[in-house]
Amino acid sequence: MAIQTVRDRHPDVLLGAREDSRSITLDKLIVPGGSRGRGLGSALMRDLVTYADRHGKQVRLTPSGAFGGVPRRLARFYARFGFVPNEGAQRDPRCGESMYRDPVRRSGGSAPPGRSRSPGSAAGRARRRRR
Predict the structure, then answer these.
(1) CATH for 43
(2) CA 1 and chain centroid, separation
(3) Are the beta carbons of 82 and 95 closer than 8 angstroms?
């Protein structure tokens, strides 16, 4: 499933996202006013993070009030999907956004939300050999 497939599966939600070989940057996720509260944004986020996990990609975003949302409320929404603030001990200098979510590796156990297994781990080496 490519990022376009995530868009296609959720036609009622406007998704603005850029993807490169290592990450997906979410620029906007807009659920129309009449459709809010029905789980459409949550369903899209579940598909997006599933896609990112499968492809080993970090997802990056900055909650914004530009489209009518409340940044603090949006930050809590994204935290439900494992996003962490890009600050302090968990600061990722490669990420220019205010929140990120590292891919969660499911084989051999799962990592805590927002943290992936070490790429040098036995599970990480086994995954790279299978690719």
Answers:
(1) 3.40.630.30
(2) 15
(3) no
Q: Does residue 110 sit within a domain?
A: no
Q: What is the pLDDT of residues 33-80, one digit of tens each?
A: 888 899 999 999 999 999 999 999 999 999 998 887 899 999 999 999
Query: Average pLDDT for residues 10-36, to the nearest whole number?
Result: 93
Q: How far is CA 83 from CA 51, 53, 103, 127, 129, in A?
A: 15, 13, 10, 23, 28
> Burial letters for 81-90: b for 16+ Cβ neighbours within 10 Å, e otherwise?
bbbbebeeee
Q: Token pair of 102, please? A: 């590292």
Q: How many domains does one find in the chain? A: 1
Report yes or no on 127 lying in a domain: no
Residue 116 lies in a domain: no
On whether residue 65 sits in a domain, the answer given is yes
Contacts of 30 (CB under 8 A, 6+ apart): 13, 14, 67
Residues spanned by the domain of 92? 3-104
Which residue blocks in the chain are alpha helix, DSSP H?
A: 3-9, 40-54, 71-79, 122-130
